[in-house]
């Protein structure tokens, strides 16, 4: 076999796609050097023959060829076994997660296209959950975990067929209020939930709440987290923490001038917010330790008992995260900011004696970071309760990022799981003709299987907590991810396959267990058949009005929207309604020199002009805007003009759609022109730092909110009647 053929054979075993077509129709085939880097990233020998042998050996090492966790359909459980010679009947015993058991003897059936394998079908359905299965066959006894998963995700009544609900979305950090300390917090979230519920919304959607970097608060992107399972402590409302209102000395720590300055800024200064909150939170921790916690781990109050229970339930993952935070803080103070790969060698290994000694010597500091997680979790839970009490039938709609920052806590704590030297990205498309490198560390699909998918399940559970809906960012990652080798162009990447069927079933299982619906953000390059599989699993698709076009470029009418979907005017990566109409995103790209050439710039400008006319025509076809008014918004001479009436028409257009959930951005209600994030930029554009110009209370109580809520509610009811 030739060297190239050997490389491709190993790539196939690893699920590395040898060829892909980007969104612009260009065919890409990774070079041999790229394939070699991919194979090395999996931790395999550089020689193709040795790498292939290692893969095959690992697969045959598992007893009966079974992974540590086998995912089966609860309604028709069946497992594929690699058989010892002379196999016949299988004796099996299954202990159920919630108690009880089932047992029996089953005859195997052959798998015609896979010699040496057979299918074991268990009679009857299994209860949903994670069980323990013991098998006896041919003198061999094997025990494995078994996840019995349902075929579909949970759907609340307001997402069932025929239902039409709507939600209000916001970038939580960007909410402005008279009480917060320079960025939105969990009290603002509670206020938003109450206001949205009172206005008739079913859900409040927010950005990911993942933990970022306490030692370096300028890491601001919620989509580049240190950990996807922990919370960003900067969302804590310090004034709502236990002890603040009772302790004048702690309240006196708040510097009035600095607080006023943070509240007045146009953009969020994350460093200033952290500098305000950290001293007060540390004082609150010391008070909490002395007042609510006793010696020897005892608790002296209800708050203290709740904290101890939180620690117990969080277990090793919570403790390890807190150790990382304490280590990161200490090294940052002594040496300046340093990624963990640049730490002293003994501290790079979370299981080392040096790390254990550090944790023991700094036990109180570690507990402080656990305290921050507890308080953030407590306040998030209170906000969710406020929403339910205000009438949000779906509640909070949370967001799960596709990956983690390679310098963060998860990458340090679970180095087998995170692939070194690779980043998640995207091949070229209309938004980024050079492709994208998001700088996020991908998960190793082989390690994910070896770990029984535990990290994936943990991330789902953590982000479904207190939520009625979970949006999975770049949901195509369940099937494949685009990896880019470090230091390479984003066009030099390749797709890597993931265990799609197993991951979808785990999503459905956790969705049903947590009673949390799932929205799959399926924008960009979507694999053939992906949406059909997601639809069959009751995952809502994510539909953005600007992308819902027919082949001729005209906008899809509301009556033709997919029902099992969430429809929105935009996302955090796209311009607001006003920004779209005025071409604010194009102006930013021009200003920052992001266009690769004049031809691409001209094409973008022409496409936007054409899109404006097509959108006006779509609104007119629905009777939402008279054709004679077109020139108000697109004058024959001069620049386009945006008016709230145009925004109302577009919002009503979406509200008429068959999509069961329709989303309204608070930025559009407030008339904001700037978007949260401009793809392809980092420091050049103030990504993740924008604050609403208008205070939250004023928006919720204002005429624009009342008008938009009334229009949307009426159109949603009308769309139900029309079906």
Counted by DSSP, the helix tally is 23
In percent terms, what proportion of residues is strand? 15-25%
Radius of gyration: 27 Å
Secondary-structure-based class equals alpha/beta
Widest β-sheet, arrangement of strands = 21-18-15-12-11-24-23-22
What does the main sheet amount to? 8 strands, parallel
Terminal CA distance reads 61 Å
Weakly predicted, low-confidence segments: none
Mean pLDDT: 94
Strands, total number: 24
What is the helix content? 25-40%
Shape: globular
Structure description:
It is a single chain. By secondary structure, the protein is α/β, with parallel strands linked by helices. 39% of the residues lie in helices and 17% in strands. It is built from 23 helices and 24 strands. An eight-stranded parallel sheet has the order 21-18-15-12-11-24-23-22. A five-stranded mixed sheet has the order 3-10-9-5-6. Strands 17-16-19-20 form a four-stranded antiparallel sheet. A hairpin with a 6-residue loop joins strand 7 (109-110) and strand 8. The protein is globular and about 80 Å long. The mean pLDDT is 94.
């Amino acid at each position: 076999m030739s060297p190239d053929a050997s490389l491709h054979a190993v790539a196939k075993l690893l699920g590395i796609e040898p060829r892909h077509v980007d969104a612009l129709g260009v065919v890409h085939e990774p070079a041999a050097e790229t394939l070699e880097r991919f194979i090395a990233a999996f931790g395999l020998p550089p020689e193709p023959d040795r790498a292939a042998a290692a893969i095959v050996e690992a697969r045959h090492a598992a007893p009966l060829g079974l992974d540590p966790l086998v995912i089966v359909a609860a309604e028709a459980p069946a497992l594929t076994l690699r058989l010892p010679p002379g196999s016949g009947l299988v004796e099996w015993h299954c202990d159920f997660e919630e108690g009880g058991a089932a047992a029996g003897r089953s005859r195997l059936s052959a798998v015609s296209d896979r010699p040496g394998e057979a299918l074991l079908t268990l009679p009857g359905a299994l209860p949903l959950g994670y069980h323990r299965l013991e098998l006896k066959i041919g003198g061999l006894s094997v025990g494995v975990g078994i996840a019995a998963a349902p075929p579909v995700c949970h759907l609340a009544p307001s997402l069932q067929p025929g239902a039409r609900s709507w939600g209000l979305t916001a970038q939580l950090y960007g909410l402005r209020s008279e009480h917060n300390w320079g960025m939105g917090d969990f009290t603002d979230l509670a206020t938003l939930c109450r206001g949205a519920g009172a206005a008739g919304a079913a859900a409040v959607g927010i950005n990911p709440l993942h933990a970022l970097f306490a030692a370096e608060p300028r890491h601001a992107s919620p989509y580049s987290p240190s950990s996807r399972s922990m919370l960003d402590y900067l969302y804590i409302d310090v004034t709502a923490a236990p002890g603040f209102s009772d302790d004048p000395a702690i309240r006196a720590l708040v510097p009035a001038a600095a607080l006023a300055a943070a509240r007045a800024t146009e953009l969020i200064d994350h460093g200033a917010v952290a500098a305000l909150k950290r001293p007060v939170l540390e004082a609150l921790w010391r008070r909490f330790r002395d007042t609510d916690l006793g010696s020897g781990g005892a608790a002296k109050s209800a708050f203290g008992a709740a904290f101890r229970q939180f620690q117990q339930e969080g277990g090793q993952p919570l403790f390890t995260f807190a150790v990382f935070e304490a280590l990161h803080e200490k090294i940052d103070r002594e040496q300046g900011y340093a990624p963990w790969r640049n730490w002293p060698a003994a501290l790079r290994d979370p299981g080392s004696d040096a790390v254990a000694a550090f944790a023991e010597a700094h036990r109180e500091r570690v507990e402080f970071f656990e305290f921050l997680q507890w308080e953030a979790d407590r306040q998030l839970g209170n906000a969710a309760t406020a929403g339910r009490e205000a009438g949000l039938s779906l509640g909070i709609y949370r967001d799960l990022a596709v990956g983690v920052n390679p310098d963060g806590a998860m990458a340090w704590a679970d180095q087998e799981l995170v692939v070194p030297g690779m980043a998640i990205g995207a091949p070229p498309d209309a938004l980024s003709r050079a492709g994208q490198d998001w700088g996020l560390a991908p998960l190793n699909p082989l390690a994910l299987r070896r770990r029984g998918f535990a990290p994936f399940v943990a991330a789902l559970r953590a982000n479904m907590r207190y939520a009625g809906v979970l949006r999975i960012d770049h949901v195509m990652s369940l099937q494949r991810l685009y990896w880019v080798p470090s230091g390479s162009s984003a066009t030099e990447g390749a797709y890597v396959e993931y265990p799609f069927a197993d991951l979808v079933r785990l999503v459905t299982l956790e969705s049903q267990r947590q009673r949390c619906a799932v929205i799959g953000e399926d924008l960009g390059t979507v694999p053939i058949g992906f949406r059909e599989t997601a639809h069959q699993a009751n995952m809502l698709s994510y539909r953005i009005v600007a992308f819902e076009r027919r082949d001729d470029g005209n906008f899809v009418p509301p009556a033709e929207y997919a029902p099992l979907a969430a429809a929105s005017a935009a996302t955090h990566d796209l311009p607001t309604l006003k920004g779209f109409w005025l071409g604010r995103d194009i102006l930013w790209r021009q200003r920052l020199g992001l266009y690769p050439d004049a031809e691409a710039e001209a094409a973008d400008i022409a496409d936007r002009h054409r899109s404006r006319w097509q959108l006006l025509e779509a609104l007119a076809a629905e009777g939402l805007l008279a054709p004679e008014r077109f020139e108000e918004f697109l004058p024959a001479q001069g620049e386009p003009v945006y008016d709230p009436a145009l925004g109302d028409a577009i919002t009503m257009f979406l509200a008429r759609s068959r999509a069961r959930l329709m989303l309204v951005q608070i930025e559009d209600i407030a008339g904001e022109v700037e978007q949260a994030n401009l793809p392809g930029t980092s420091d050049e554009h103030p990504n993740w730092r924008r604050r609403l110009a208008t205070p939250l209370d004023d928006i919720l109580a204002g005429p624009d909110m009342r008008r938009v809520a009334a229009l949307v509610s009426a159109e949603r009811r009308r769309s139900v009647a029309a079906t």
